[in-house]
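Task card 7
Instruction: Convert sequence to structure tokens.
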Amino acid sequence: MHDAAPVVCLVDDDESVRKSIVRVLESAGFKVQAFSEPDAFLRHLRMHSVPVAILDIWMDNMTGMELLAHLCARSPNTRCIFITGREDHAAEITVMQAGAFAFFVKPFDNKRFLQAVQEALCAAPTRNEART
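Output:
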């Protein structure tokens, strides 16, 4: 077991959704760092390893798809789980083809969501593996 548990990052510009998802994740034992805007998350990414990022697709300043492009360039080992408030099969296909780990439409089944987060954490390389 690692001394410091990996932190799951959440980026969603809707405060009530963000608080709800943080509550679900923390109740399952995950450590969470939540961001209300993509730029704040990108600043965090410059200084911290992010094994799993949960990204809202539709945000005001930057879409989740644009954020995924930044992640692919800056942190290719980060596993991305996308969430959205609207059915959008084209967006789902686009992000999954771009390497997303999972895609959920809100409201989603918490058990399936938590299972996907756990699987993403298990699939993400450790800090030492990412350096080799």
